[in-house]
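Sequence dictates fold. Below is an illustrative record:

_____
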Amino acid sequence: MCTFSNEAVMTPLLLAAVLLFSPPALAQAAGGASADEARRLFAEGKKLVEANCADCQGASQGALADGLAKLRQALEAGLTDKVAAYRALVDGYASLAFAFSRGDSPEQRAALEEQRRAYQDWLALEPRNIQVLYDYAFTFPQAADRLPVLERLLEIDPKHGEALFAVGEIDLEAGRVEAALAKMQKAFDGAQGELAVSLGERLLEVYELNRRPADAQRVRARLAAIKVELKRLEQGGQPG
């Protein structure tokens, strides 16, 4: 008759099995599977969103909605690169709002609300991301809702020309003409290149509408000089 000692003998194979199926190891394996699933969902969702954009040939609303759902599922599954998911969600909801919804319809408003929520989640991770703040501001149709976001942006970057000019436009709509013109002029003065041309042409129109011929002439003169410089650069010249 065979007898066994009361002391268990842990062979290397038994030790490996115990470690493999221990609670921490099982949790780690589950976490790895979850991470893989999150990455798979993200990759599939991003591909669907990109393939069904507003300008994509053969775009399908159903496929786009499926892509957006997969991106949300990836986040719920613990996707590490959340910023990439929010960027794709923002683009996808824009396509849903403007390519697959009628203007000012309940469907469009719902898509834009989801886009704003994605921006908010993105900004929770990157609160000082200037471009995201600027884009987020213009998801609001009302100037009163855009203004706090633009002011938050300008606290971070007081020289952001587009945001400063946009705040000037809000002042103008509210009848604060002098404050508006001061902000718009400051934005134009600090801008260079193509941005200066864009802001300058808009400012010129405002001066002309408000019968400020001297101010309009100064803007017109600088615009002409900037356009000459840009043309020279296009032809291979060195920056002046």
Remarks:
- The first helix runs from residue 12 to 20.
- The two ends are 101 Å apart (CA to CA).
- The chain has eleven helices and no strands.
- Residues 1-10, 13-22, 25-30 have pLDDT under 50 and may be disordered.
